[in-house]
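okkk here we go again. third time trying to get the 2-oxoglutaric acid bound version out, last two times i messed up the smiles copy paste (missing a bracket lol). double checked this time i swear
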Amino acid sequence: MTQVAHASLSYQASFFGAPAGASELDFSGARHIALDGRSWIEHIPNWLAQPESLFAELMEIAPWLQRDRWMYTRTVIEPRLTADYPDVAEVPIESLRTIAAALSEHFGVRYSSLWVNLYRDQRDSTAWHGDNIGRVQAESIVPVLTLGASRRFLIRPAHGGHTWTLRPVSGDLIVMGGRAQRDWRHSVPKESTPSGPRISINFAPERHRILRSAAFRR
Ligand SMILES: O=C(O)CCC(=O)C(=O)O
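finally!!
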């Protein structure tokens, strides 16, 4: 893994708004999609007001790493950067700790850790996968907050079938629930049209953190 100097990344850090307060985080606009009888996904547009400030802060201070992983016969460089916060209490951004607490309260899940991904441009991506939590829990609730550029977020059944396409914009929350990490696979594909940087914030309970080192991809 390689620590990445954030100064080498171009981004616009010109808008610093007020930190998110828990009372502003409103779940009532959720669009709920029943993927099947036991799995679901929700898209909550404009969930976070003034997402630009959080985007800029993470760009600046997150401990971005370039990871690699063993794939079948060789090591491949992940086409994105990642930063881990194993303990939410130690996240050095107050508004992000507030967001984790609001999600924990709303979903009744203690989100004690999080990781952030940086898709530097349209060439960065995440391959089809289920999150590790699906290995140990049949059901889970995984919130993913988008900041910055809009990218396609796809989800399809693990064994093939209809692909749902969501296009979250900055401040939107995507939530995967039920058996979505076990029976379904999600991805953020490369795009052909130019795109600026996107950050996704992925919230996880303790058990997910323990398993994080052994991602399973299909
Ligand atoms: O960036 C996203 O929207 C999804 C990220 C993801 O699925 C992951 O990091 O496991």
